[in-house]
Amino acid sequence: MSVPPDPDGRPWLLALHSSSESLGVGLQRLGAVAPERLETFPLGRSLSNGLFDCLESVLPASAWPRLGRLAVATGPGGFTGTRLTVVLARTLAQQLALPLDGISSFRLMARRLLTGPEPPGGDGPFWLLQELPRRGVVAGLYGADPGQPGGVAELEAPRLHRDREALAPHPIRPALVQLPEDVIQLLGFSGANAAEGRAAPWQPVLPLYPTSPVEALPC
Fold first, then answer.
1. Is 135 helix (H, G, I), strand (E, B) or coil?
2. At what angle do helices 105-114 and 181-195 cross, to 10 degrees?
């Protein structure tokens, strides 16, 4: 791929999402309102072997110095896929001295739902929930908030619950990744942060592991 020229010399915003069986990559000019490239790669367990090739098919390594900001979905998601993409994003941000926005995959889903035709919580908050066989449920609580980045408040970050009874009384929606739609949301979050001049150091950006083996199942 040849990188299209930009007469204003605006840098690129690159977004990576691997919290499902597929890798999503988005490329957008900082300050633009729409992505220039959106690609989905159904890599599954071969992500570790195909990650760099997929990234370079969207933006060649020779063009990485033209990046101005990075964004990555931090999960919850598969242990290996999420970890590899977050590590890659952190490495690029460190080596290129770029800001890095880490956004949970649940928060991206919430923004997609809130901007859809039927917001799931009406005027109030709602849960996003993922069922885990024999473990319980992973759920996060979200609501619309124009004062928050991307217009979405993460009222409770995704964590493990024994069952859905603890989630009353708010509405519950299934936590389902949709690509490339959720990559568009990731670009939107990061673009809004850039427009508002929000700092985004790479060091705090880490994968979310609600089902960590070192933590006991909630009572």
1. coil
2. 90
d(CA 67, CA 113) in angstroms, rounded, equals 29
Q: What is the pLDDT of residues 178-204, one digit of tens each?
A: 999 999 999 999 999 999 999 999 999
Nearest Cα neighbor of 189 from 123, 107, 114, 122 is 107
Q: Which of 196, 199, 165, 158 is nearest to 19 (CA)?
A: 158
- Residue 126, SS3 per DSSP: strand
Let me know the angle formed at the C-alpha of 14 by 89 and 154, rounded to the nearest 5 degrees: 75
Helix 79-96 and helix 47-58, axial crossing angle in degrees, nearest 10? 40
Q: How far apart are CA 53 and CA 71, in angstroms?
A: 18
pLDDT digits (tens, 9 = 90+) for 70-103: 999 999 987 788 899 999 999 999 999 999 999 9
Question: Nearest Cα to 208, choosing from 61, 76, 119, 51?
Answer: 76
φ, ψ (nearest 5 deg) of residue 40: -125, 130
Give yes or no for a contact between 143 and 119, defined as CB atoms under 8 angstroms apart.
no
> Containing H/E element for 184?
helix 181-195
